[in-house]
């Protein structure tokens, strides 16, 4: 199977067929997401939160995303892969920005890049698209601007805020993005955006009217030692507890000498390969 294309994504919007997106950061998460049949995987700078335990995405570097994107490319070979442009990697000169995009595509094997922002990045987005690189927009709660936004606040709660979000979405559409992620906003705001632009709107914490949904991998399977349930997340498993309990049982069995048992040990005269895999 081939990764879907940005043209197929637009068709999915016109056909009312929801787009499924999750994040992935390494080979197993990418491979499992692909086998589960997601449409798009994102190598998100959320890796700073969920696998490095930074307080925000700001410390995440281009090298971090390239490193993780390479692993994701080996796991999700047949899935459309988007890589996040980290904090301040697309606000300098055009040359510098294009160099960063080049690394995500050539070294990280991404099919597209994602950038946070609206009207203020319209020109930059346009130049990247002109270079032949599909760009995914990202508006609403934009974690790289968290200190300017003043915290993880729900966006689009008043008419001026909705107006601004709409203007941002339209600017990005003009600049040529193939879709827009809308994060943490009222359902009403996301519904208007999805209705007023032709490109797919993919929501995370943005309600039911979006053209697709995105959840962070570690949130959706609860792969965290200190999970704090957010209202917009639905957890489909409790992988954190499963891992903790498994390791605790292993520790117990080592201490009581219940592991290893006869079935786990080697003896002279056994065929090596067969012996290794049981
Ligand atoms: O980094 C990420 O995972 C993201 C999504 C949460 C939108 O940008
Ligand atoms: Na991100």
UniProtKB/TrEMBL annotation:
<dbReference type="GO" id="GO:0032259">
    <property type="term" value="P:methylation"/>
</dbReference>
<keyword id="KW-0963">Cytoplasm</keyword>
<protein>
    <recommendedName>
        <fullName>3-methyl-2-oxobutanoate hydroxymethyltransferase</fullName>
        <ecNumber>2.1.2.11</ecNumber>
    </recommendedName>
</protein>
<keyword id="KW-0808">Transferase</keyword>
<keyword id="KW-0566">Pantothenate biosynthesis</keyword>
<dbReference type="InterPro" id="IPR015813">
    <property type="entry name" value="Pyrv/PenolPyrv_kinase-like_dom"/>
</dbReference>
<feature type="binding site">
    <location>
        <position position="45"/>
    </location>
    <ligand>
        <name>Mg(2+)</name>
    </ligand>
</feature>
<comment type="subunit">
    <text>Homodecamer; pentamer of dimers.</text>
</comment>
<feature type="binding site">
    <location>
        <position position="114"/>
    </location>
    <ligand>
        <name>3-methyl-2-oxobutanoate</name>
    </ligand>
</feature>
<feature type="binding site">
    <location>
        <begin position="45"/>
        <end position="46"/>
    </location>
    <ligand>
        <name>3-methyl-2-oxobutanoate</name>
    </ligand>
</feature>
<dbReference type="InterPro" id="IPR040442">
    <property type="entry name" value="Pyrv_kinase-like_dom_sf"/>
</dbReference>
<keyword id="KW-0489">Methyltransferase</keyword>
<dbReference type="Pfam" id="PF02548">
    <property type="entry name" value="Pantoate_transf"/>
</dbReference>
<feature type="binding site">
    <location>
        <position position="116"/>
    </location>
    <ligand>
        <name>Mg(2+)</name>
    </ligand>
</feature>
<dbReference type="GO" id="GO:0000287">
    <property type="term" value="F:magnesium ion binding"/>
</dbReference>
<feature type="active site" description="Proton acceptor">
    <location>
        <position position="183"/>
    </location>
</feature>
<comment type="pathway">
    <text>Cofactor biosynthesis; (R)-pantothenate biosynthesis; (R)-pantoate from 3-methyl-2-oxobutanoate: step 1/2.</text>
</comment>
<keyword id="KW-0460">Magnesium</keyword>
<dbReference type="GO" id="GO:0003864">
    <property type="term" value="F:3-methyl-2-oxobutanoate hydroxymethyltransferase activity"/>
</dbReference>
<comment type="function">
    <text>Catalyzes the reversible reaction in which hydroxymethyl group from 5,10-methylenetetrahydrofolate is transferred onto alpha-ketoisovalerate to form ketopantoate.</text>
</comment>
<feature type="binding site">
    <location>
        <position position="84"/>
    </location>
    <ligand>
        <name>3-methyl-2-oxobutanoate</name>
    </ligand>
</feature>
<keyword id="KW-0479">Metal-binding</keyword>
<dbReference type="GO" id="GO:0005737">
    <property type="term" value="C:cytoplasm"/>
</dbReference>
<dbReference type="GO" id="GO:0015940">
    <property type="term" value="P:pantothenate biosynthetic process"/>
</dbReference>
<dbReference type="InterPro" id="IPR003700">
    <property type="entry name" value="Pantoate_hydroxy_MeTrfase"/>
</dbReference>
<feature type="binding site">
    <location>
        <position position="84"/>
    </location>
    <ligand>
        <name>Mg(2+)</name>
    </ligand>
</feature>
<comment type="similarity">
    <text>Belongs to the PanB family.</text>
</comment>
<dbReference type="GO" id="GO:0008168">
    <property type="term" value="F:methyltransferase activity"/>
</dbReference>
């Amino acid at each position: 199977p081939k990764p879907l294309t940005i043209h197929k994504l637009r068709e999915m919007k016109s056909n009312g067929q929801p787009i499924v997106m999750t994040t992935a950061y390494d080979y197993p998460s990418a491979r499992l997401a692909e086998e589960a049949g997601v449409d798009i995987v994102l190598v998100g700078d959320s890796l700073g939160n969920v696998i490095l335990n930074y307080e925000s995405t700001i410390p995440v570097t281009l090298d971090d995303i390239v490193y993780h994107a390479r692993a994701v490319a080996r796991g999700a070979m047949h899935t459309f892969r988007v890589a996040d442009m980290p904090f301040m990697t697309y606000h300098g000169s055009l040359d510098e920005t294009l160099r960063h995009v080049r690394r995500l595509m050539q070294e990280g094997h991404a099919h597209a890049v994602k950038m946070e922002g609206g009207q203020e990045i319209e020109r930059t987005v346009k130049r990247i698209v002109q270079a032949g690189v599909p760009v995914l927009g990202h508006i609403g709660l934009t974690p790289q601007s968290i200190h300017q936004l003043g915290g993880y606040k729900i966006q689009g709660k008043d008419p001026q805020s909705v107006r601004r979000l709409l203007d941002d979405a339209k600017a990005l559409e003009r600049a040529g993005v193939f879709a827009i992620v809308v994060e943490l906003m009222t359902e009403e705001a996301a519904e208007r955006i999805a209705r007023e632009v032709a490109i797919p709107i993919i929501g995370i914490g943005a309600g039911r009217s979006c053209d697709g949904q995105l959840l962070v991998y570690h949130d959706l399977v609860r792969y965290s030692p200190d999970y704090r349930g957010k209202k917009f997340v639905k957890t489909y498993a409790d992988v954190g507890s499963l891992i903790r309990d498994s390791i605790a049982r292993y520790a117990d069995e080592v201490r009581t000498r219940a592991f290893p048992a006869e079935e786990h040990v080697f003896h002279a005269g056994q065929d090596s390969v067969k012996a290794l895999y049981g």
